[in-house]
Amino acid sequence: KTLHFDGKLSIVQIRIATGRTHQIRVHLQDRGTPIYGDDVYGLSDWNKGLSAKRGVSRPLLHAQRLEIGHPVTGEKMVFEAKVADDMMGVMEGIWPGDEMKALFG
Fold this sequence. Notes:
Blueprint lengths: L1 E4 L4 E3 L10 H8 L13 H11 L10 E5 L6 E5 L4 H10 L3 H7 L1
């Protein structure tokens, strides 16, 4: 689901069904919308610009919420994590304003 598009970059929400290695990265690259900062499946020119402009040298991919079953009891376990500052800075450039900060800040 695209949450915001600034004409060049998007902030998206993705739900995955399995834990296949590189699943999100491969599918987004296959659609022509690779993850910003992804050296394997991304666009090298864009990634170089991201590194030079923002000092970011990693894929801008974040698991905000993870739900898994406990391996012994089966009880649902929920883990949540805030978006890292470097990623938040890029997101604010794509989607300025309070709406994005309310969802991720």
